[in-house]
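Retro notes - structure team

What went well: the batch runner handled both jobs without manual restarts.
What didn't: labels got mixed up in the shared folder, which is why I'm recording both outputs here explicitly, each with its sequence directly above its tokens.

Job 1
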Amino acid sequence: MSSLSQLEPRHVKSSSNTQDDVVYEYIFDAILEQRLAPGTKLSEEALGEIFGVSRTIIRRALLRLSHEQVVSIRPNRGAVVASPSVDEARQIFAARRVVELAVIELVVKNVTPQSLARIRAMVQAEQDAFERGDIGSGIRLSGEFHLELANIANNMPLLNFQRSVVSQTSLIIAQYEVGHQAQCSCNEHEALLLAIESGDPARAMAMMKKHLDHIEGKLNLDNESASTDLHVVFSDVVKKQPPTRRG
């Protein structure tokens, strides 16, 4: 079986991660970047070939993603990328408002000059990605900005919930948003940082609510055209992999 040590995606922080950790993070990244279309069938066999691991490892990664509600596992039919309905999308945004407002209030209390510098660098990387036309990386970095806020908040249950609602929101945007207004996102993230820097929780919470309202306001019932071909989505993995040995 091939090692995944050369394939660690951006979210993987430790060299001690298991193979299903790495597969999980690759699929999570693909959802954040909107490279996986809602409703895409996640074939255990195809993913096992792509990553060079057993179906058992793929199954564990998919089960973790299903707990975050970004993958649906259907009895006797396998797993698919979740495809939220309009009503579900509204519920997810309502839940996200609750968690984001709680997060931003804690961030104002817990932020340090070091963590502020780190997250400001993420906003700059997000803007750079959009400016060079790398939409997928820009979208992922936009999601990671919100995950980093939850990390700064220093509350693990909120961070875990944030991972779920941010990735679910990415699926909703992939289904229902018309166009990408990257500059608006970057500008609003910078405005959020300024509000955090001011030390005023009410100002930061008001800015976060405005930001989420803006995201939801761009949604409609049209579909985006992310790929449903797993080999296309994970082409970077395929290129790095040696010939697959089953195990």
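Job 2
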Amino acid sequence: MLGQIYLYMIIVYVLLSWVPNARESFVGNLLAKLVEPYLSPFRKIIPPIGGMLDISPIVALFVLQFVIQGIIAVVHFIIPG
């Protein structure tokens, strides 16, 4: 549940980059404080394509989804039913 909320927060944060000055709003600043610590390692590893297109959030979303599914599988293994 919390993992899904965080996924949506990342998606909203990325979509805010398409709206002029949206990241400077209260919501944009709040999301930046919550999401940037997770996204920054991916941005260091994955350079923008053509200098403009940042695909690191997409990779970060896939990794986060993979981790969430792994945690769910472990919990279901430990606590069957």
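One thing worth noting from job 2: Residues 59 and 69 are 15 Å apart (CA to CA).
We'll revisit the folder naming next retro.
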